[in-house]
Fold this protein.
Amino acid sequence: MAHILVHQSAANPKGGAAAQAMGKTRGGRNTKLMALTDRHGCLMSFLLVEGQAYEGRHVRRLLPKGRKWKVVGDKGFDSDKLRRELEGLGHTTCFPGKKNRKRKVNYSRKLYRQRYRVENFFCRIKRWACLCLRREKIFLHFSSLLAFAAVIDWMQPRVRF
């Protein structure tokens, strides 16, 4: 998950900010990009949500149906309800617990170390100035740019593990 600041030229979109996946946070307007990548760090699917939204509510929409996934996330996904829901669907979860958690959770540190591949995807995608700072008002235009950048990223040669 990555936060994308909304440029002032994209503010006040037609239909309202929420309809265009823009939210209001302390830092101003922003959009959250949630990404599902393969084991090589290439984008499989993505979801844009408002900046203030809790990501846990949107994880199910991000995962394509018909396959069991290893869902690796940061401490922001730490929720017993989310874990039960995903494991009930047959997915494997790997979220470390927050520090203030009363009951510690076990997670695979080996699997969690693979999360850097998703973070590397975000680093590569944010090299595109139009994606690093959201200048597009319309959700469809911005998501099209993101998909285009992901295709270009897929075509880049990289070491496959």
In short: The chain has one domain: 2-155.
